[in-house]
Amino acid sequence: MQYRLDPKSGNKLSILGFGCMRFPRNLSQIDLNKTEKLILKAIENGVNYFDTAYIYGGSEEAFGTILHKNNIRDKIFIATKLPYVKCQRYEDLDTLFHTQLERLHTDYIDYYLIHNLSDAKNWERLCEMGIKEWIAEKKDTGEIRQIGFSFHGTYDEFLSLLDAYDWDFCQIQYNYVNTHYQAGTAGLRKAAEKGIPVIIMEPLLGGKLANGLPQKAVSLFKNADVRLTPAAWAFRWLWNQKEVSVVLSGMNDDAQLNENLELADNSLPGMLTNDENKIYDAVTEAFRASYKIPCTGCNYCMPCPQNINIPACFSAYNMSYTVGFLSGIQQYITSTGSTNPNANHSPSNCIKCGKCEKHCPQHIQIRDSLNTVTKRMEPFWFKSALKLFVKLRG
Ligand code: SF4
Ligand code: SF4
């Protein structure tokens, strides 16, 4: 495992961080046995940074149970996040924080983030509530060691936030197709210039850079001299940059963990060749040409009051371009339950309430995009074809 120095704390952080949002599940429940095996193996192999959040349904509780059972709290750094949208009064800060400590079976958090703080206006609101005094108190008692924020806003807002407080670290969405999106490369470098370690989320853009690349991009990687999976290419691009501290990966099976561990053993800043950099440029071009809606499948927009499976509809729509129209239609029919007249959750049922859009970190105009999806995925023959299919099926 390679480590990079966090200049603010002196901690040596493993370049591979464990993202705890997508622990393996057994139906809707987190599979504790599988999760425990993965976590223990990651720690044995040098991973020391684990990232969870208050809102990652059951993640803090599961992770805390595993840490406690195996008595491994002190071997790792815990990063978790304050759901600041739930904070209306000063007292809420303490209530939420103590719930998190309890869930995680710990009395301190190494890296505490304000979750999805995407503009200076919200930071000002928190300051009026007294958050700076609260942070100072928690740092004095040692309950919070490092304070930071996770970010999905615009580049300008990122710069404003960097200057608004003496942050210990920050977390941004970053990968080789998002170089000019949100904080982007320029934001990463600005943070590093200020001596702020940067944690990277969405290195695979919700899995699209691993399993959702268009065929042309897959071939470009396949024909390269180095034989690596698309996911490995995405991680190497990040670790090639000295400004990157930790890359989070939501590893939920052994194969992913093994591949990432092997890569993290020997990935160093400046390792990429000119030829490899040209391949990333060509893959990015192919990706941008085929991906229409930049949904990462994070599910923050769910549930929808009309039971529309928003990320699945977007995924089917994108697939209809990257893989082929028929594959996209197949996924669309499954996601919308279109063959069942009693469970039809077509995007055409959207009542335009706008609830979903408030939560989308990718700032997708979900209502308009769902319109676009319906136009393509429900062509004039769609309903008659479905009726025929249901009739034939009996
Ligand atoms: S705007 Fe449409 S898709 Fe979004 S939450 Fe409301 S009904 Fe659901
Ligand atoms: S539409 Fe936005 S909030 Fe919903 S899953 Fe996609 S990226 Fe996440």
From TrEMBL:
Keywords: Iron, Iron-sulfur, Metal-binding. The keyword Transmembrane does not apply. SUPFAM superfamilies: alpha-helical ferredoxin, NAD(P)-linked oxidoreductase. Pfam families: Aldo_ket_red, Fer4_9. Residues 341-369 form the 4Fe-4S ferredoxin-type domain. GO terms for molecular function: iron-sulfur cluster binding; metal ion binding; oxidoreductase activity. PANTHER family: D-THREO-ALDOSE 1-DEHYDROGENASE, OXIDOREDUCTASE. This is Aldo/keto reductase.
